[in-house]
Amino acid sequence: MPITPLLLVPLLAAPQSSFADHPVAEWHTCFADARAAAAESGRPILLFQLFGRLDEERC
Amino acid sequence: MIFSNETVSEALGAAFECAWESVGPVPQVRIDFGNGDVLETTLGGNVLTSFCLSNGTVVDLLPGVTTPQAYLVAAQQAAGLARTIEARPERQQDRAIREAQQSFLGVWPWVLHLSGGVLASKPGIRIAVDLDAVEPLPHVERAPNTPSLEVAVSKSLGELPLLTSIELSGVSPISDPLYADTRKVETILRPQARAVLASADALTPAAVTPHVFRLVLKIDLDDPYLGLSKELVGSRLQR
């Protein structure tokens, strides 16, 4: 299929509705735990890496 | 700041399994002005977000700090990309990820090599990759008759929702340094990170993160001085 920018429009727009009305994110404190949870839920993983600790920093 | 935004936090919780990891202790700066005033702060902003498939394969990267709105747009993009990749057979996923990243950049790997590791996606923006640090070519060459991934997009279209969200947020481009940081991330740091990801030997956080910190954020995670030692020559470094 040829590349066309129009195909990305629904890609960008569609997730917004599914983002609503869900609980605030719960954070795993290591990538391995997130992988284990993702294997169960089927959801992708967001890994945030920083200096220091997320629960002590203003991020 | 980003994750204390309730809208962003709810969105991330709905779409992702979220995890955080520390890459080292947070650097602290203390300046005693000698008159009783002391300034103490931390060196922040050197952060990396890796968006991964449920099996841990990295599909997209966001280095640095952005506005919450821009972060949400990036997360939405990555969630869509992850769904697209996951729909493909597993044996095709790594190639699809690299092709997606190359499409975001608008270049192909051989261009990277022909240019000696320096890319210029548009005038005034220089994207450089240390070719010695990444595994470049054979596995990212397009196979014959392989259809293009449907997430390919021009940079201008990719920026559209970002710029719109920034405008809607009421952030002043002139007065808010976070806006400048966001522009830097979207126009310089993220394309560089995507170039690294497109050429990475393995698409795991363990393999990708050190390269992105070193090549994009200019921090060698193995350097106890985080690359600041040159600037501190003459000062009394203490371990």
Would you kindly provide a brief summary of this structure?
Chain A is of the alpha+beta class and 59 residues long.
Structural features:
heterodimer; A: 59 residues; alpha+beta; 3 helices; elongated; disordered N terminus; B: 239 residues; two-stranded antiparallel ribbon; two-stranded antiparallel sheet; 7 helices; 7 strands; 42% helix; 16% strand; globular
Describe, in plain words, how this protein is organized in 3D:
The complex is a heterodimer of chains A (59) and B (239). Chain A is 36% helix and 15% strand. Chain A has 59 residues and is of the alpha+beta class. The longest helix of chain A has 11 residues, at 31-41. Chain A starts with 7 loop residues before the first helix and ends in an 8-residue tail after the last strand. Chain B is built from 7 helices and 7 strands; from the N terminus they run αβββββαααββααα. Chain B has helices at residues 6-15, 68-86, 90-105, 109-114, 155-169, 177-199, 205-215; strands spanning 17-24, 28-32, 38-42, 48-52, 58-63, 118-122, 125-128. In chain B, the strands form 3 sheets. A two-stranded antiparallel sheet of chain B has the order 2-3. In chain B, strand 6 (118-122) and strand 7 (125-128) form a beta hairpin. The longest helix of chain B is centred in the last third of the chain and has 23 residues, at 177-199. The chains are: A alpha+beta (59), B alpha+beta (239). Chains A and B meet through helix 1, helix 2, strand 1, helix 3 and strand 2 of A and helix 1, strand 1, strand 4, helix 2 and helix 5 of B.
Strand and helix map with partners:
The complex is a heterodimer of chains A (59) and B (239).
Chain A: H1 8-13, H2 15-18, E1 27-28, H3 31-41, E2 45-51
Chain B: H1 6-15, E1 17-24, E2 28-32, E3 38-42, E4 48-52, E5 58-63, H2 68-86, H3 90-105, H4 109-114, E6 118-122, E7 125-128, H5 155-169, H6 177-199, H7 205-215
Antiparallel strand pairs in B: 2-3, 4-5, 6-7
